[in-house]
Design a protein that fits this description.
GMP Synthetase, Chain A, domain 3, five-stranded parallel beta sheet, 20 helices, 26 strands, Rossmann fold, single chain, alpha/beta, disordered N terminus, about 600 residues, five-stranded mixed beta sheet
């Protein structure tokens, strides 16, 4: 990071500016590569000066279109560099950004655009324009459609928008940024929601700026040239905060090629220093790393030995103790035979990865840690602007989501629900005061809906969702997430959804991995052995007594998963009601 003046990004943040003002200032402080992305023929780059200039041109174009301060500007696109440019441009114009998941149906898009009152929508390509075009007649407030691709009626091309703003003086951007107040809305983020229609979380400039500052106070960014791999949907608040944090730090945002089959290839080529992701990715890497040992006793013994050596070595290092001659020699051998191969999946420069949005099995994190890969679990929600607690390399406790960020207060309600308070807690749901009052009390405490406990050192453990809690017919409370996570670690199991509310015992719906030999009659026996192995870890009331194999995996396209791969439990239950009833010996209704 090479500042053009004696000011630093920290100075700008400390001045208490809004996000619009601080971004206008901080982008000018950095001279390095801001974005690295694949243009179809190879990897391209944009430097900070180029990002700043392009965003300013687009912002002036929005002003020329008639966008006023406080107007809603939506972005309907997959994660790509144009998303970031549109985001910056809208903020520079004083608008409120409304992210829309690119996987949303036309009906879901209509709900977000209508509820937010968006006047402008950026669309990634023709497919997204086709979703929006029929809505224009039903959404009178939606006046302009802008496309990142080739112009298609009724859309405006991105470069045409930039040229249109040529007559708008650059000083207009400064004036608009200075006019924004900290309590003004910055963005309205619609929850992906595992139940019900998405609600718009109104995050103010103070909310977003505060969360960035809180993260920077907790996490140390050591690499001289930070490269943050970005593949999570930017419509999700975690990816958005990661994007803004990277720009604040002067890091390089490395964008994926929008193909999940190329994720690991991207990581190998881009060599990120930081990798934010969701548990499902780490579960798949873990499954791939251990697959070769599952059917070979010698390979299993080698893997277990190497991981054991890695754990002892890491424990010694973290206590600042020498490894000793024997352990050092074992670790060199274990590293050459096993551990190095695991690390190379993440590239050679990874400082740490971060996981959130859903529970992850601590054994998976310990496995990677033994290989020298730090996967740090954190916690947050849209209503907390993204991050509320996180582990760090220096303060790491497996099985927890870390300590609350500086400035974030937490407490546990009598029923076990986690309550959060701080400058990062959202201002409320858009046009829904009753829904807001249900989750924020008069003292500003947010009821998260998550069950948690906190140890004497301040580390938080999330034990489940209040709404997901299963109460059996005998009155026993069961949290399904830990059982499901254990099942999903087993070979061939992609997703497991546990059921049993008001039932005498637990059952599960199990979806197999795409490469599982589903037609092999022995696969059910294999899954039964996996279920038996998992059951042995739990109390009798928490054991899965019967299960049904689904004929396909769960998917976002089928409406069973959110964009961050969380299971929409009630959707799955209803879709497979007959199978669940059959597991309890009940006749399928005619």
């Amino acid at each position: 990071m090479n500042p053009t003046s004696t000011r630093t990004a920290a100075d700008v943040a400390a001045a208490g500016h809004t996000l619009s003002r601080s971004l206008l200032d901080t982008l000018d402080l950095h001279h390095g590569v801001a974005a690295r992305f694949h243009d179809g023929s190879g990897w391209s780059e944009l430097r900070y000066s180029q990002i700043a200039e392009q965003a300013r041109r687009l912002a002036r174009g929005l002003i020329r279109l008639g966008v006023e301060p406080g107007d809603r500007v939506a972005i309907l696109s997959d994660t790509r560099v144009e998303w970031t440019l549109a985001d910056l441009a809208a903020l520079f114009a004083g608008a409120v950004v409304v992210p829309v998941y690119q996987t949303n149906s036309a009906g879901e898009c209509e709900h977000v655009l209508a509820d937010s009152g968006a006047r402008v929508v950026f669309c990634e390509d023709d497919a997204q324009v086709e979703k929006i075009a029929p809505l224009l007649g039903r959404l009178p407030q939606l006046e302009h459609v802008i496309t990142f691709g080739v112009r298609r009626s009724p859309a405006i091309e991105l470069e045409d928008l930039a040229r249109a703003g040529g007559a708008v003086p650059d000083g207009e951007l400064d004036a608009r940024a200075d006019a924004v107040r900290p309590d003004d809305p910055c963005t309205i983020v619609y929850t992906s929601g595992t139940t019900g229609a998405p609600k718009g979380c109104v995050l103010t400039h103070a909310n977003v700026r505060s969360n960035i500052d809180m993260i920077e106070r907790r996490i140390r960014f050591d690499a001289e040239e930070n490269v943050i791999y970005l593949w999570l949907p930017l419509a999700h608040v975690l990816a958005r905060i990661v994007q803004l944090l990277a720009l604040d730090q002067g890091a390089t945002l490395a964008y994926w090629r929008r193909d999940t089959a190329l994720l690991l290839d991207d990581v190998a080529e881009l060599q990120p220093t930081h990798l934010p992701s969701v548990p499902r990715v780490f579960e798949k890497i873990y499954a791939a790393a251990t697959a070769g040992a599952s059917n070979s006793r010698p390979r299993r013994m080698l893997l277990d030995w190497a991981i054991g050596v890695g754990r002892r070595a890491q424990a010694a290092r973290e206590r600042a103790r020498p490894l000793g001659v024997g352990l050092a020699a074992q670790h060199r051998l274990a590293d050459r035979l096993v551990l190095r191969r695991i690390r190379r999946v993440f590239g050679d420069r990874l400082q740490f990865a971060v996981t959130g949005a859903a529970p992850v099995d601590p054994d998976i994190l310990r496995f990677f840690h033994a290989a020298g890969v730090y996967v740090l679990e954190g916690y947050g929600m849209t209503e907390t602007t993204a991050v509320a607690a996180v582990n760090t390399i220096d303060e790491l406790r497996f099985g927890t989501v870390g300590r609350p960020l500086p400035g974030c207060s937490v407490r546990i309600a009598p029923d076990g629900e986690l309550l959060v308070k701080g400058p990062h807690v959202f201002s409320g749901y858009h046009d829904a005061p009753d829904a807001t009052a249900e989750v924020i009390d008069d003292d500003g405490w947010l009821a998260t809906g998550d069950l948690a406990r906190q140890d004497d050192d301040g580390y938080l453990t999330i034990t489940g969702r209040k709404k997901d809690l299963i109460i059996t017919s005998s009155g026993k409370n069961v949290t399904p997430a830990s059982i499901e996570n254990a099942l999903q670690q087993q070979r061939w199991i992609s997703h497991a959804v546990v059921y049993g509310d008001r039932r005498p015992y637990l059952t599960a719906l199990i979806a197999l991995e795409p490469d599982a030999p589903a037609s092999d009659p022995r696969i059910r026996e294999e899954i039964q052995r996996s279920v038996d192995e998992v059951n042995a870890r739990f109390a009798a009331i928490e054991q899965v007594k019967r299960f049904a194999l689904l004929d396909r995996d769960l998917s976002e396209e089928a409406g069973e998963l959110t964009p961050t791969a969380k299971v929409k439990r009630q959707v799955v239950y209803e879709r497979h009601r007959d199978r669940l009833d059959a597991l309890y010996g009940e006749r399928t209704p005619a």
